[in-house]
Structure formats: structure tokens, C-alpha cells
Design a protein that fits this description.
Layout: H1 22-26, H2 38-52, H3 58-67, H4 72-85, H5 91-94, H6 104-109, H7 125-139, H8 143-158, H9 163-177, H10 183-199, H11 203-232
Helix pairs in contact: 2-3, 3-4, 7-8, 7-9, 8-11, 9-10, 10-11
GO biological process, one term: DNA repair
GO molecular function, one term: DNA clamp loader activity
Pfam family, one: RFC_C
């Protein structure tokens, strides 16, 4: 890098500095770019929808903005998926006929569409798999179920889904589904194994270990609740 520094400039982008080696960091001028605000994401979504020729209600733009967690790329993908899922539109989804379109029939047969503000935001396939993994962990705690969860983790990793994104999504779904009494234990467990993941090489080992540990935590909690219920009787 030093040899060609006068004639060559490199721009490197990363979500985190922890995985960048120190020699490379020391040779770069670090510039932190904050995540876009919800207002900025809404403006981009409206601009894209206008260029693509469809109407985007403000209410639905806000829903997409909140669902994408300030990730503009994810927001654009969710907007595209939502449009594909809702087209061609059913008559009960259309509502009032938009301007410049003479009738609902011609609207349904045309390539121009608009969103129903009450429709759900489409999720990416990998997010649906993460939700399914959390559901599998909640419903049963056994070796057989752990093997099935391991298979789902493998599917995500082989499709180039980052392990830290899998960790985050599965953890959020577990926290949403589990009792708040064990939420601190789940967070502590997730933090421990995510740290091990960043230090290690094989993501599947740490993902599976996290799933097994959660099963233990949740099963102990269920057993304790059942024992307390029997004692009360």
C-alpha cells in the first residue's frame, strides 16, 4: 500500500471494525457513517416508488422503515418483495381507485399498482427461516429437535447469510416469544456465544451451542414452573 499510495486510493466499507486486522486499520483513515434516519429512509422509498411508477402510501413507507431496522438495503428489498406479494391486487385490497386510472378493472389488468397501507411488510426468506428456528426451539427441547435446528442453520450459512445476522434475528425472536423472566438469561447466553463466534472459525459450532444452551435454559424454566404449579395444588 505504501509503494503506490501516491497514485492509488482504496475505499473500504465495513459494518464493524472488529474483524479488520490492525495493520490494515492503521493504514486507513477511518470515517464513521451513521445509519440513515427513519425520515431519510422514507424519503428514499418514496423516491424509488415514484421512479418505478407506483404509489406508496406514507403509512406503509413508515412500516417498511421500522421493519428494516435502519438498513436501507433491507428496506428496499422489503419494499420490492411487498409489491411482488401484493400484485396482482385483489379487489378488496385495492380500496379507492387511484387517480389517472379510470376503473378498478383496468387497474388490475395494468402494470401500475399501489399498496394497501394495512398489508404486512414482506420478510426476506432467511428471516422466515430464523423465525422458524426460534419456533422449533420453543416448541420442543430434544436431541432430535437440535439436529433439525442444526440443519436449518446450515441452510442459512450455505446461502451466505452472515452468522451474526442469524444470531441477532433468532435471539430477537426468542426474546419476543419467551417469558420475560428468562430474557436476561437468553441475552447473556446470546452475548457469550456471539463473542465466541467472532473469535472462532466455524460458525455452525457456535450457533448449535447457542441453540443447545437455550434449550437447557427454557426446559429448566418450564420444569420449574410445572413444579411450582404442582406444589400449589
Amino acid at each position: 500500500m505504501e509503494k503506490y499510495s501516491r497514485t492509488c486510493r482504496l475505499i473500504l466499507m465495513a459494518d464493524s471494525l472488529t474483524k479488520i486486522i490492525e495493520p490494515l486499520r492503521s493504514r486507513c483513515n477511518l470515517v464513521r457513517v451513521p445509519s440513515p434516519s427513519e425520515k431519510e429512509i422514507c424519503a428514499v422509498l418514496q423516491k424509488v416508488s415514484k421512479k418505478e411508477g407506483f404509489e406508496l402510501p406514507d403509512q406503509f413507507a413508515v412500516k417498511v422503515t421500522r421493519a428494516c431496522s435502519k438498513n436501507l438495503r433491507r428496506g428496499l428489498l422489503q419494499l420490492q418483495s411487498s409489491k411482488m406479494d401484493n400484485y396482482p391486487f385483489a379487489e378488496d385490497q385495492v380500496g379507492a381507485t387511484p387517480p389517472n386510472i379510470p376503473s378498478c378493472t383496468s387497474f388490475l389488468s395494468s402494470s401500475v399498482g399501489f399498496f394497501n397501507p394495512t398489508q404486512p411488510v414482506s420478510r426476506a426468506d432467511w428471516e422466515l427461516v430464523c423465525i422458524d428456528i426460534a419456533s422449533l426451539l420453543m416448541r420442543e427441547q430434544s436431541n432430535k429437535r437440535l439436529l433439525l435446528v442444526r440443519t436449518r442453520f446450515y441452510e442459512l450459512l450455505t446461502h451466505a447469510i452472515p452468522a451474526d445476522a442469524i444470531f441477532e434475528r433468532v435471539t430477537m425472536e426468542l426474546l419476543r416469544s419467551a417469558d420475560q423472566e428468562i430474557a436476561p438469561a437468553i441475552c447473556e447466553c446470546a452475548a457469550e456465544y456471539e463473542h465466541r463466534l467472532k473469535q472462532g472459525q466455524k460458525a455452525i459450532i457456535h450457533l448449535e451451542a447457542f441453540a443447545a444452551r437455550f434449550m437447557q435454559i427454557y426446559k429448566e424454566y418450564i420444569d420449574n414452573q410445572y413444579s411450582m404449579l404442582i406444589d400449589d395444588d
